[in-house]
Amino acid sequence: MFEKVLIANRGEIAVRVIRTCRELGIATVAVYSELDRDALHVRLADEAYSLGGQTAAESYLNTPAILEAIERSGADAVHPGYGFFSENAEFARAVSGAGATFVGPPPGAIEVMGDKISSRLAAEKAGVAGVPGRSEPLTDPAEVIAFGEEHGWPVAIKAAFGGGGRGMKVVASAAEAKEAMESAQREAVAYFGRPEVYPEKYLTWPRHIEMQVFADRHGNALWIGERDCSYQRRHQKLVEESPAADFPDEIRRAMGEASVAICHACDYEGAGTVEFLYEDGRFYFLEMNTRLQVEHPVTELVTGLDLVALQLRVAAGEPIGLTQEEVAARRNGHAIECRVNAEDPAGGRFLPSPGKISFFRPPDGFGTRTDAGYESGDTVSQFYDNLVAKIIVWGEDREIARRRMLRALAETAVEGVATTIPAHQAILSHDDFVAAAHSTRWVEERLDLSGVTASPATVAEGDDGERRVLREVDAEVDGRRYRVKLWLPDLGEAASSPASGARPTRSKRAASGPVAGGDGNVTVPMQGTIVKVMVKEGDAVEAGQTICVLEAMKMENPINADRAGKVKELKVKPGDALGAGDVVAVLE
Ligand code: ADP
């Protein structure tokens, strides 16, 4: 077994890996960007090395800096977590070149599964059908039209090197083919540096069901169990569960066996996930992720297996040490995971909400697990993924797990940033969740989040026109305890002195309100970087018109004028880094 593992990642997954290493008696090495100097993963590791830089490219994607940390620490293995370098064959080779073991599959397997076209071909070779599509890049919009006419509309045009829910265009008819193909190619180049796109039939009401697999270098490959990850926004997962509800055993077995066949076809080793779309009782190969998934804990809770420990053992050359029958016998009960992202789900918009977490209290209790990357006082930066924590629960059956999750969500307190928790509460308490009547489109098409607010209002104007703030205090009346809400004149922070036992329920930042004030200043609601400016000084704009696009946490957010007017002053250009509340334009 390894003596010292360097974790080339940050946030909750770095913390997750550190914990298992500690249990196995393995020393841990953290690496960090300038913004993460005091992050939780750094605080928990035995040793830590600075990578410098702020953005991912300058830090967690800086190979020479990571190689130097490997050398200085003497780590004999590198765990890449997910994201960043976890599916990068060149990085895996560089780690081996530095004399350490890359905890992941061989570079050849990463490469085969690295793009969606070559992974479709590998699956076909193993006898597993993909979503009906073409396993070669498109060169002419006429090919999209021919494909749509043969397989029916809508058609998805996907970036071969796409990922993270990005790089897919849905084409409803032949008339849209040209424009959609060109825009898909433009986006593919912009985001992934590669222009290849290909068509797939767009399934209109599928579920996303994926299979956890494990293989070792002794020729053993096993399927561990499936996860239903259909609750998504922007093609990104929000809630995952295992087992998939209303999913017959024979289909589970067929999906498991297909996944194992794919492992053998690409000489796979280590943990992997084979993703499928499932519709009308049939499953179609989507892609294979050659790493640990964010949602791996649901599989851990239903099998009792520590998948990180298994990854480390297999990477150290040990056999998996389990048979397919033993895995089947281990599966027990039901697990659900909710991703707590720093995002404001109000109105179904899921806007990024980076900032300082002024207070965080994770849930606790029977069958409840929290994998967090942050504690109270830590800051969620706009430069990285906005996953704050994952709440995972186990129950004897799906309904018990569902109720436990609702209890855990209600118990969780996060202040200072908005989170996806209100959306999770809406999802888990919906009749369609209970009936498992969902699909990958369900959150965006059926779930009504119009009434959801990320946080209750804490500032209001009284009848007298005076600003009032909400304070909560505990009061006893005749020996019975009550929590009392008081709307008090705003006397500044001193008013919330702890003498009352009250804590301000939200930070000042969160109460600071909408995107643009009526004063003509158009401001940004969050920290981010300007990627595009859509107007010039002197332009007349309408209310709601986009002034510029702000990228924060890997998402593009249009910054719109709140009223009509002429652009008197434009204060930003592409590349500018802004803080919450900064003015981008002044309207006359
Ligand atoms: P990524 O690599 O960005 O995660 P995937 O190919 O894994 O992209 O797809 C992500 C999600 O996009 C799926 O879970 C599903 O919701 C949707 N999706 C992808 N391909 C299709 C398709 N052909 N039809 C319908 N939905 C699709």
Number-wise, the strands total 33
Number of helices: 16
Write the CATH fold name of the domain at 4-103. Answer: Rossmann fold
Which class do the helix and strand fractions yield?
A: alpha+beta
Average pLDDT level: 91
Please give the CATH architecture of the domain at 4-103.
Answer: 3-Layer(aba) Sandwich
Which regions are unreliable across 5 or more consecutive residues at pLDDT < 50? 493-517
Spell out which ligands are present: adenosine-5'-diphosphate
> Hey, roughly how much beta strand do the residues contain?
25-35%
| Rg of Cα set | 25 Å
Helix residue percentage? 25-40%
Alpha-carbon distance between the termini? 68 Å
Main β-sheet description:
8 strands, antiparallel
For the record, what CATH class of the domain at 4-103 applies? Alpha Beta
- Which term fits the overall shape? globular
Notes on the structure:
With 588 residues, this protein is of the alpha+beta class. Among the domains are: 100 residues, 3-Layer(aba) Sandwich (Rossmann fold), CATH 3.40.50.20; 70 residues, Dna Ligase, domain 1 (2-Layer Sandwich); 47 residues, no CATH class; 75 residues, OB fold (Dihydrolipoamide Acetyltransferase, E2P) (Beta Barrel). Helix content is 26%, strand content 31%. The protein is built from 16 helices and 33 strands. The strands form nine sheets. The protein has an eight-stranded antiparallel β-sheet, with helices on both faces. A five-stranded parallel β-sheet has the order 3-2-1-4-5. The protein has a four-stranded antiparallel β-sheet with strand order 26-33-31-28, with no helix packed on it. Helix 7 crosses helix 8 and helix 13 packs antiparallel against helix 14. The relative contact order is 0.09. The structure holds adenosine-5'-diphosphate (ADP). The site of adenosine-5'-diphosphate (ADP) has 21 residues, from strand 6, strand 7, strand 8, strand 12 and strand 13.
